[in-house]
Amino acid sequence: MSVNYGVAWVQVYLGEIYDIHGMDTRGDCWCSNGHNEQYYITTFKLSYSLNGGQFNYYVDENEILNGNVGATWNIPNRKTFDKKIEADTLRIHPITGFYSALAFELYGCGNISL
């Protein structure tokens, strides 16, 4: 599998505006029957939007966040955000990785009135 790092992204629409406090990321592993193939994202950028149109980067467009150092599907890499993110749409932009697999969970509160 090939990923065009720096151009591709994963986008999630949350359905309403959330105050997002952090996230967990995980990779994946095909580790059975003699196979030990790991897939994960090592660095990424994060952007967000209130309307799915104009996106802003978390901190700025040069801010690169650390992902996983191995597949670790059962041990998440937890990020707690210092900067408040209010968004209904989030994008994860992979920068580097190993074959690229990504699972993530977001942590926050919904029903934010602006």
TrEMBL record:
InterPro entries: FA58C, Galactose-bd-like_sf
PROSITE patterns, alphabetized: FA58C_3
Name of the protein in its database record: DgyrCDS14429
Source organism of this protein record: Dimorphilus gyrociliatus
Source domain of life: Eukaryota
All copies of domain F5/8 type C, residue ranges: 1-111
